[in-house]
Every structure is written in C-alpha cells, then in structure tokens.
Design goal:
The complex is a heterodimer of chains A (about 300) and B (about 325). With about 300 residues, chain A is mainly α. Chain A is about 75% helix and about 0% strand. Chain A has 14 helices and no strands. Chain A is flat. In chain B, about 70% of the residues lie in helices and about 0% in strands. Chain B has 14 helices and 2 strands. Chain B has a two-stranded antiparallel ribbon with strand order 1-2. In chain B, a hairpin with a 7-residue loop joins strand 1 (about 70) and strand 2. Classes of the chains: A mainly alpha (about 300), B mainly alpha (about 325). Chains A and B meet through helix 1, helix 2, helix 4, helix 5 and helix 6 of A and helix 1, helix 2, helix 3, helix 5 and helix 6 of B.
C-alpha cells in the first residue's frame, strides 16, 4: 500500500516540476520531504491496525508466540470462534441498536435546541445557553453515582432505556448545530415567513436542508460516542445478553488472556462499522466543522 | 416550495406570530395570545433537549453536591459530615498525586497532539494526491473505541514480546517495561492518547485552514514573504480560533482522562498513573466511599470550569476572529 501511495503521490509531481532554478529545486525537495513524512506518518498511524489484522488471522497468536508480519498459515478461525463461543453477533446488534437510537434522538434534540438558540430570541437565552455549554464540562464519571441511584429509583437499571436516557441530549451537538444555523442567512427565513411559513415549517424546510454537513458531522460523533461508550453501559447493563461491544471486548481480554488472535478479531469487527460510517460521511465532516464556525 | 409552505401555514392560524417571531426587530409581540403562542413555540423547540439535560445531567450534578456532604457507602443510609469529605481529600496526599498525574498527562499530551495535528493539517491542506485516503488513515484511530486502542497498544508495548521492544532490541536498545514500569506507564498512555486524537485535531485545524482566504497568501507572496513568514504572519493568526477551540476541548477532555487509563494500566503500577477520574471511579466502586468520590468530582469540575473560564477570558489577547 505504501508503494502505491508513493507512486501515486510523488511521481506525477516530480515530473511536472522539473527543477529549473535553485528556487524550483528547493521547492521540489520540499515536496519530496513532505510526501515522505506524510506517508511514513500514515504508516505509523496505520501500523497498529495492520498489526491487529495480522494478529487476528494468525492462529494461536499470543504474547509468547509473536505473529510474523506475513502470517504463515493465515486463517479466519479466530473470527469463527469469536462468534461461535460467545454471543458476539448479539453483542454487535445490541451496540448497533443503541447507537442508532442515540444518534436519531440526538439529531432531533440537538437541532431543535440549536434552532431555539439561533432563531427564537427569548429572555435569559444567553444564560440558558451558558448552562447548556457548562454541561460539556462535567465528566460523565462525576454523574455516575447520582445517575445510578436515579435510574435505580425509576427501576431502569439493566435496561436499554436506562443506558439510553442520559445520552439523549448532547451539548456538543447543540453547540455544533447552533453555529451552523447561525451561518444560514436570515433572509431565507424571512422570505419563508412572508410566504406564511411558521417556525416548524421554516425549521424543517429551510434550516435542516441548509445544515446537512453539520448534521452529518453530528451523526458521526453521536454514533461514535455511543458505539464506543464504555463506562455507563458497564455500570447500567448487567445481564450478559444486553452487553455492548466495548464491554464484551474488555471481557475478552480477561477471558482469553493468551488468545490474542480472538481478541484482535473482536477488535477488527468492532472498528468496521465506524470505518464504514466515516468513509460515507468523510466529505461532510471537514466541511461540517468548517461551516460550524468552530474553525 | 412556497405553495406547500402556504398550505401548512393554513394550520398556523395566528398571523401575528408568523410575522413577529423570526424577525428580531418586530419584538416585543403585541397581543398576549400571540405572546403565549410564541412562548409555546420556544418551549416546543427547547424542551426535547432541556428535559434530558435537566434530568440526567444537571439533576445528578446537584445530587452529587448533596452526596459530597455525606458519608455514604452506596448501601447504608447517608450520614451528614458537612464539608468533612473535602477536608479529608485536601489533607490526603493521594488527592495531590492524582491531580499531578492528570496535569502530567495534559502537559505531555497537549503539545504532542497540537503540534502533530497542526503539521498534519498543514501538510494535508496542500494539493497532495490521495489526500482523502491519507486523511482517512489519520482519522481512523479517532473513530476507534478506547478499549480496542488500549488492547492494541498493550500488545504493541508489551515489555517482553511486544513489537516495539522487539524492534528496539534489534537496534540494541533495551526497551522499558512501559505500562508495567511506574516511570513509563504515563508516557505509554500519553503516546497512545496522542496517536488516537491526532486525527481529531487535524480535522478541526484543517477546517480552520480551509476558511482562510487564499488571496491573503497571494498578497503575502507578492510582498516577498517566504513559507515561514507566511506561516507566522498569516496562517497562525488566522488559525487562532481553531487553536483556541482545540486547546479548550483538549483541556476539558484532558482533565477527564479515564478510558485509556482504565483500559491500559488501571491506574497502576502502584498508582503511578492514577488520574483524578480513575480515583473517583475507584473511590466509588472499589472502596464504597461515594461521598468522597462526589466531593472529588466537584473539585474536578471546579478546576475544569476555572481553567475554561480563564481561557475564555484570555482569548482576547491572542485569538483573532476573522
């Protein structure tokens, strides 16, 4: 892969910019150095994943049996065992379900709140927004005990609703979308108002279509937050059949201490959906951050 | 589109609200009926987020303050101790240690991710072939769960047979014990964290770079400014809002560092990498000292809030808004 990148990256450039003067020469050196650094960096970044994949297809890989860079007898046995010996399929479905619900609800709660903060002036708005933002500064761990007691009172321990409820509103998401809505020209709302549209109509037909990149960014971050969340599900979900991926993975480590191929197979499986989502949303993410005015 | 808007507008019978609400100038709303309708609209948009935030963030936060004034092992009834937990924490040397470890983590992590992310963003903002693939590779660790990253890094940094120590041994260097060595546990966590978050910082800074108008660079070039000069006189000043955002978020997250510590070292060896939130977790779930844990939580929140407020106050000195 590195070779492919090198040829794709440097060759055309080098031929286009033939070194004519000293300046062009330093320029060319600069470009080559840049490419080498970036590609070496990318290899360093990717190496742990490559190593994960290699370990997952090396049967019997363990700390004392370090896998070779090119496995001699590659096998998907670890993946089979992962799904055969543990309810791993169920665990993935659980995580997917929680992530999809969290993302969908956060899209609604964040966009409506963002609209209120951007387009519906009311007394005390700045103060309320300040309180919303302050909730970003509280680590979840701080809230664990009171939340635990609260959900125990409601009888929601060991239920999905209990795992989900605290994730329903996200100050980060509201902040992100508010910045995006602020960038939508107010003339659009005013034109719609003249046409007789109410706030709900303006929100759904003017604002939402105009902040798609920011919404896509929120989808990635909300899904990622839920998919990877560890501490809260660990505390709330006790039954094995309700387990989510990060907890199951952490559990694998204890159970299969010597069987790194199985552990790494689990890791590969857990990264794939996020990777797919990112590839799908990539072009929106940078655009979304850029247009949010966070810059 | 306008016809469909007009159709739904039929449902919206009150003409006053429609004209008065979205345009700031036309407030205050005149009739009291329109006023209550407007209030209803605001609530309708705000409540879906306000209810969960109140019930599951602000409520528990106030409850934590209440718990922090008690002695409580999660099972027996709470016992009022006033500010006793705070006094106990302040006199306990472990409290200083966990804050020091957290600051050590931030001091190592923040420069690494910021300068690394900046270099990457600058490099990947040029017309590089295959740059979206490269951006994807650098972003991959960001979307990966800490549990997975910690597993992989524990494996890579394994003292006896890990690939990193094997590679070091090949060039004649005796690798350290990493997460098993009190001196190297925190650096191991810092390396892994920086590796994981580099892509996030890169994306924020890239977005900032793309918002800088190119004609500024053209003007600087015409004035004979070289690459470094353009970096210091154009790029960095105009990138300062992004830098500010990265620093604020990284500090908030840095003080809350937990997942990687929990998964990589569990705070060990011998508490060498025990950070504040890990201590909160241990106090609560290992030692059943929930009152002290809540007090420590509030101390942490106060520190984070103070640090954030200081940054927001100080931003005028160095942050240039376009």
């Amino acid at each position: 892969m590195a070779d492919a990148l090198l040829t794709r990256g440097t060759a055309p450039r080098a031929s286009v910019r033939a070194p004519r003067s000293r300046e062009a020469k330093t320029r060319l050196t600069g470009i080559i150095v840049l490419h080498v650094v970036i590609i070496v960096g990318a290899i360093v970044m990717f190496f742990p994943f490559l190593w994960t994949i290699i370990t997952s297809i090396t049967p019997g890989a363990s700390l004392t049996n370090t896998p070779a860079l090119i496995p001699e007898n590659p096998s998907l046995g670890a993946y089979q065992r992962l799904f055969a010996e543990r309810p791993f399929g169920q665990v993935i479905l659980n995580s997917l379900l929680l992530a999809i619900i969290t993302t969908a609800v956060q899209l609604i709660t964040s966009s409506t709140a963002a609209y209120a903060f951007s387009r519906l002036p009311f007394r005390g708005q700045t103060a309320v927004f300040g309180v919303y933002l302050a909730t970003m500064m509280i680590p979840l761990q701080v809230l664990i005990v009171p939340l635990f007691v609260e959900l125990k009172t409601f009888g929601l321990l060991d239920t999905y609703l209990g795992a989900l409820l605290p994730t329903f509103a996200s100050a980060f998401g509201i902040f992100l979308l508010r910045q995006a809505i602020n960038q939508v020209p107010r003339e659009l709302d005013e034109a719609a108002t003249i046409d007789g549209a109410g706030h709900f109509r303006i929100f759904t037909s003017i604002i939402l279509p105009n902040i798609r990149p920011a919404l896509a960014t929120l989808v990635v971050f909300a899904f990622m937050g839920s998919w990877n969340s560890f501490l809260w599900p660990l505390v709330v979900l006790r039954s094995p059949e309700l387990q989510t991926l990060p907890i199951a993975l952490a559990g694998l480590q204890g159970q299969y201490t010597s069987q790194w191929d199985v552990i790494m197979a689990g890791s590969v499986v857990s990264v794939l959906p996020m990777l797919a989502l990112y590839v799908f949303a990539q072009k929106y993410v940078i655009q979304g951050v850029a247009s949010s005015g966070i810059k | 589109m306008s016809t469909s808007i007009a159709q739904t507008a039929l449902v919206d019978k009150d003409p006053q609200v429609m004209t008065s609400a979205p345009i700031r100038v036309s407030r205050p709303v005149r009739s009291s009926r329109a006023k209550s309708r407007y209030a209803f609209t605001v609530l309708a948009f705000l409540l879906p987020s306000a209810i969960p935030l109140l019930l599951f963030v602000l409520g528990p936060m106030v409850a934590a303050a209440w718990v922090s004034l008690h002695k409580w092992n999660l099972l027996a009834p709470m016992q009022w101790v006033g500010l006793g937990n705070y006094a106990k924490l302040l006199s306990d040397p472990i409290t200083g240690d966990v804050f020091l470890h957290t600051v050590y983590y931030i001091a190592g992590y923040l420069p690494l991710v910021y300068f690394g992310g900046l270099a990457l963003a600058l490099a990947l903002n040029t017309a590089l072939k295959g740059r979206s693939l490269l951006r994807g590779i650098y972003f991959l660790p960001v979307v990966t769960s800490w549990i997975v990253v910690a597993l992989v890094w524990r494996w890579l940094l394994s003292p006896s047979n890990g690939i990193i120590n094997t590679a070091l041994a090949a060039v004649g260097i005796q690798g350290p014990g990493w997460w098993t060595d009190p001196h190297w546990a925190m650096p191991a966590i810092i390396f892994a964290s920086s590796w994981k978050d580099l892509g996030f910082v890169m994306v924020i800074l890239l977005a900032g770079l793309q918002a800088i108008p190119t004609d500024l660079y053209d003007a600087a070039k015409v004035d004979g400014a070289g690459w470094w000069r353009r970096l210091f006189s154009v790029t960095l000043p105009l990138l300062s809002p992004s830098t500010f955002f990265v620093i604020v978020i990284s500090l908030i997250n840095g003080f809350q560092v937990f997942d990687q510590v929990y998964a990589m070292t569990g705070g060990g060896p011998n508490g060498a990498s025990e950070v504040v939130v890990q201590q909160i977790y241990d106090l609560t779930f290992r030692y059943g000292r929930a009152g002290e844990a809540s007090a420590l939580s509030w101390m942490l929140f106060a520190v984070v809030l103070a640090v954030t407020v200081i940054q927001i106050r100080g931003q005028r000195r160095w942050v240039t808004y376009g």
